[in-house]
Automatic annotation (TrEMBL):
It comes from the Bacteria. Residues 210-229 are annotated as: Disordered. Residues 151-210 form the DnaB/C C-terminal domain. Gene3D superfamilies: DnaD domain-like. It holds the Pfam family DnaB_2. It comes from Sphaerobacter thermophilus (strain ATCC 49802 / DSM 20745 / KCCM 41009 / NCIMB 13125 / S 6022). Belongs to the DnaB/DnaD family. Residues 210-219 have a biased composition (Basic and acidic residues). SUPFAM superfamilies: DnaD domain-like. This is Primosome, DnaD subunit.
Length: 244
């Protein structure tokens, strides 16, 4: 059992000024805020004094689980924790890395301070020893920085994640389930429409009219593909293009 600063009512948990002045004003998702505050609390405990916390510790933290669980809900809010972590990594509030080996390795988190950014760079280059909590790195293993899943999927299928695209992906993560974004990217690729605007239209359509596959499953009909630009082609195109 981990001993945590929360067990001592008089214990002080340091939260950097940057969190309140730069990060918190931009955060709209309560899961992201609670993930960050939980991380600071864990870092104040003797177990994680090396400045890194395993991602799995957030998924098993009873205070975080209770804080995000809906009243009367039977299921644990693991998806909410996942969303909070992904948002914090996407926003640049958290750094996430793995010691990559045959089994993929445990994911580790630390606040994205300038010192930690430098520290992670040294880990990646093998110029600094890993914290004892992470363990010794064998010569065959490497440290790999991990970006959010939707960032990786976008770059693999659409294009470079520029700062503007990153902001739009973060906003999408706040508005829609992550699976929707991944599916919308795949849908756009299937139509060879590799543009964020097209992906955004798919998400907006699903949000207002529901996802076609979900409606079709309820009605017993086979799922049909959705092309949000069908109204921008053909005889009605001038009408819709004037409204854009």
């Amino acid at each position: 059992m981990h001993h945590d600063a929360g067990n001592d009512p008089d214990a002080r948990i340091p939260v950097p000024r940057q969190f309140f002045e730069e990060l918190l004003p931009a955060m709209r998702d309560i899961a992201e805020i609670k993930v960050m505050l939980t991380l600071y609390r864990l870092l104040a405990s003797p177990d994680w004094r090396d400045g890194v916390v395993p991602e799995s510790a957030l998924y098993t933290d009873e205070h975080l689980l209770e804080g995000l669980r809906l009243t009367g809900a039977a299921l644990l809010p693991l998806d909410d924790i996942r969303r909070g972590i992904e948002l914090a990594v996407a926003r640049g509030a958290l750094l996430r890395f793995r010691v990559v080996g045959d089994d993929g390795g445990e994911a580790w988190l630390m606040p994205a301070t300038p010192e930690n950014r430098l520290r992670l760079g040294l880990f990646e280059q093998g110029l600094a020893p890993l914290p004892p909590a992470v363990g010794a790195r064998e010569p065959s293993l490497r440290v790999e920085r991990e970006r959010p899943n939707v960032f990786r999927l976008y770059e693999q299928n659409v294009g470079l994640v520029t700062p503007i695209i990153a902001d739009q992906l973060i906003e999408a993560l706040e508005l829609y389930p992550e699976q929707w974004i991944e599916d919308a990217i795949q849908e756009a690729v299937s139509y060879n429409r590799r543009q964020w605007r097209y992906i955004q239209r798919i998400l907006e359509r699903w949000a207002t009219e529901g996802r076609g596959d979900e409606a079709d499953r309820r009605s017993g009909r086979p799922a049909t593909a959705f092309d949000p630009e069908r109204h921008l082609r053909g005889k009605h195109a001038p009408i819709f293009r004037r409204r854009r």
